[in-house]
Amino acid sequence: MADLHVATLASANPVDVVSSDRHNVKPWFAGKIPFTFNLPELQGSQFELLGGKVSYLEQAPGAQLLFRVRKHQISVFIFQARALPADFARARETDAQSFHLESWQHNGLQYFAISDVAPEDLRALSDLLKK
After folding, report:
1. 117 with 124: CB under 8 angstroms?
2. Reported pTM
3. CA 75, CA 71: separation in Å to the nearest integer?
4. Which domains does the chain have, with CATH numbers?
5. Going edge to edge, which strands form the sheet with 93-96?
6. How far apart are CA 66 and CA 5, in angstroms?
């Protein structure tokens, strides 16, 4: 997850759909990934949606959403849980090499949120996505 996140941060074009409007970003994924997901309303929160792109993990297509809080960027990856090895679901919270990771499953989807933000910021975005 850290490698995918860092590759995004290093890219000149980190997202393929550039929009802070969830009503533009979510429909962009239609036909590009084999599932749909919900995006929270971020107005009134400290988070800003920057956009998204298709990402792959274990040869499975998924959504990568990029958010900003202050000057930090957060990647949220969403994959079908059944398409990933079982050990991917085990890690709930992890800290490694200055990155924090939160992971959870909901409605058959596996979510991963990763960033170098404070753990409480990552948890706050994760809580918004879980609603």
Report:
1. no
2. 0.90
3. 13
4. 2-130 (3.30.200.100)
5. 17-18, 47-57, 60-69, 72-80, 109-115, 99-106, 93-96
6. 9
